[in-house]
Specification:
about 70 residues; single chain; elongated; mainly beta; 1 helix
């Protein structure tokens, strides 16, 4: 049985700073994608929040949408 559910996702464009650039093997100022994710447990309380900065040329986002009749 699922004990958590993904509860949020926020994506945004960023410029990769000089401190992070060598770790991502890009030049400072290169485009990046900042990803924030958070999860809520079955009890309704958040238990994890993550922030990741990715190279723009190595990140792909896909999403599945479902339509429900009102």
């Amino acid at each position: 049985k699922t004990i958590w559910r993904p509860s949020g996702l926020k994506l945004g464009a960023v410029s990769i700073d000089a401190a992070l650039a060598p770790r991502l093997d890009v030049a400072p100022g290169a485009p990046g994608l900042e990803v924030h994710r958070w999860y809520i447990g079955r009890d309704g309380h958040p238990f994890e929040y993550t922030v990741a900065i990715n190279r723009a040329d190595r990140y792909r986002f896909s999403n599945r949408l479902r339509y429900r009749e009102p």
